Amino acid sequence: MKYAVSSISVIPMRREPSERSEMVSQLLLGECLTIIEEKDSWLFVENAFDGYCGWVDAKTITPVSESYFNEYIEHSGYEASHEICHAYDMNRGDHILIPIGASLNYYNKETNEFEIADKRYKITSSIDVTNHKRSNQIVDMATALLNTPYLWGGRTVFGIDCSGLTQLLYKIIGIKLPRDASQQVNEGITINFVSEAQPGDLAFFDNDEGAIVHVGVLDGKGNIIHSSGKVRKDIFDQQGIFNNRLGKYTHKLRVIKRIIE
């Protein structure tokens, strides 16, 4: 088995080995992966953080040893960045953009440094990487992401889909969620009544066939923050999501789940 790490800010994961193929997800800086298949200049990989698979350009990743990979797994992906910032390669001086949710492997709080493969980076500004596991923190971070554009397969502030948003919010506080809404709905405990929902709870929505197709995070005040067209805040009740501008319900509620006890 071969292993690698995402060594640039964001890497598209595609359905087929082509730059024209649909992007199904993204790898964030510092996330480790296993290489399953090689085809020309493309690699079919599995993200160790969430088990998601897709094709990536071989030029965008850096090979790592099995021990490096296992260390990453043991530390659950290391600390995650809470904000966008910059860092520079301490040997070559190259700068790199750190996206929200990046895995800061071997992060040293005293020196503000971290490692990606054989490179050591120093963060050029103060950064919060503590994982508090507080539900109100999730709502604060979700609010900060309002108006982020929707992007199918996206996991960053430059474009994000509904399940990418909820996964990112929980990753920042040190909790792993699967990649897709249809997988995330299997996590946590069920909340039976809307009146019992708390800040940070996840609401899931289905289509006419009963398939889970959407997810958002509740603020505990009768609203939901979700990615639909953009990251937005809408009214939430027992029927689902009500869009004031459209004057109608846009998503039908299936279930509410609590991830943090």
Automatic annotation (TrEMBL):
InterPro entries: NLP_P60_dom, Papain-like_cys_pep_sf, Peptidase_C40, SH3_16
Pfam families: NLPC_P60 (PF00877), SH3_16 (PF18348)
Biological process according to GO: proteolysis
Keyword Protease: yes
Domain NlpC/P60: 132-260
UniProt keyword list: Hydrolase, Protease, Thiol protease
Signal sequence residues: none
One GO MF term: cysteine-type peptidase activity
Family: Belongs to the peptidase C40 family.
Protein name per its UniProtKB record: SH3 domain-containing protein
The organism of origin for this protein: Acetobacteroides hydrogenigenes
